[in-house]
Amino acid sequence: MEKLQVLPRHPIFCDLFLLLVYVQACSNLAMAGSIVKFLPGFEGPLPFELETGYIGVGESEDVQLFYAFIKSESNPQSDPLIIWLDGGPGCSSFIPLFFGIGPVILEPLSFDGTLPKLVLNPSTWTKVVSIIFLDSPVGSGFSYAKAAQASQSSDFQASDQAYEFIRKWLHDHPEYKSNPFYVSGISYGGIPVPILTQLISNGNEDGIEPRIDLKGYILGNPVTKASGIPNNRVPFAYRMGLISDELYESLKVSCKGEYEIIDPSNLVCSKNMRAYNELVRNIDDQNILIPVCHPPSRVPNKLFTGGRSIIQMLHEKFEELDVRESTPVKCIAEWITLVDHWANNKSVQEALHVRRETIGQWIACNVTLPYTKNAGIAVPYHANLSTKGYRSLIYSGDHDLTVPHIETQAWIRSLRYPIIDDWRQWIHQGQVAGYTRTYANKMTFATVKGGGHVAYELKPAECRTMLERWISHQPL
């Protein structure tokens, strides 16, 4: 670093120097976030307020977390503020932002070589809440590390960094300090969301500033074990008619109800599991009702496996086909891959104020992160947060084989809280949208009928209704 030159202490010069320091400080503060007025692919100015930026966290701020903040379109001064953590780990929050709960969505037409178009989303959650979409952990989306060592992350470290991010963001946006605050996410977000909620609660109790007006958390089809697969996949497949009565009974006996870890010496169980895997092959495990893409999966986050993301593979597939005519997408993965084409467009990244020199190709779900899953089981965090009186909404698309709703209901029951509003229908526009139950620990569980692992993909209006009622303390 250059040695600071000693300057003469002339009064006028000192005043000028202090003014320059002040201007520079204000300039640095303003650089924390930038307002986006226009987005490539959307006609005209945006009819909502979008801010994007980076906030440095960790030692020497070597981790730079990218965020997109959208202000509530109703009453941002008092409406709840939500921070969104996506799944993976390693998935960018751009997927829910531009394909589900944000104010614009990508038009569901297959890629034709031109920039995908954005259209207004009538079911946006930002009609009732403000949302910070955070690319976390480092290496997700547009977030990056300034040093190689800082690219290493884990469940606990990512949660600590997200907490630091929130405090710094609220310091830069003091007008939101008194807004009701909720932590939210889906899928593998079921691990960091309760940890982050606990960190915020502890910080408030310890008097850490700024105090965050934490009210609770929201989770969709949440993972609760940092490693392994849900043990209720086989029972769920049986309930949904994917396997026969005879195979299910044999599986129960031979595997003794344990399908997560198979003893290789148990030949009958191994044989039955091979039969099970063959029967669920070519079934989209994130929503068993919908068509599969080829290769036969649409899983964008590769939740429990390694390898390239489906977004990358579909990107290559589109380029091989050299499609030049837009047609309706045949499956959800084709729709999701539009985000990949849009987010990697140079004009889009310029509009979003992305630091282009810091990233290579934007990837929807970075499955090669140097990431350690060290949190174990998240259920104790739910139990502890319940004792502190925080509200929670846990919802499940009821056709998800990845994290079946019966898996979620099992750990909720393990908390042993009394039921105060028993299993009943909840209604959207005169139709049954799912089923719900409320517990004495201020936890609401809800299914989304026909929904999958990401329930708002196919049921956006129903999910917005669910959120709107719950966030305003109304029964579903």
Describe the protein in words.
The structure is a single chain. The protein has a single domain, classed as Rossmann fold. The N and C termini lie far apart (59 Å). It is of the alpha/beta class and 476 residues long. The model is unreliable at 1-31 and 295-325 (pLDDT under 50). It has helices at 11-30, 94-98, 155-172, 192-205, 233-239, 245-255, 267-279, 310-321, 332-343, 346-351, 379-387, 405-414, 460-471, and strands spanning 34-36, 50-57, 63-70, 81-85, 104-106, 118-120, 130-134, 144-145, 153-154, 181-186, 214-220, 371-372, 391-397, 419-428, 431-439, 443-448. This is Serine carboxypeptidase-like 2 isoform X1. It holds the Pfam family Peptidase_S10.
Q: What's the rounded overall pLDDT mean?
A: 85
Quaternary state of the chains: single chain
SS elements, strand count: 16
Q: Helical stretch count?
A: 13
The helix content, as a percent range, equals: 25-40%
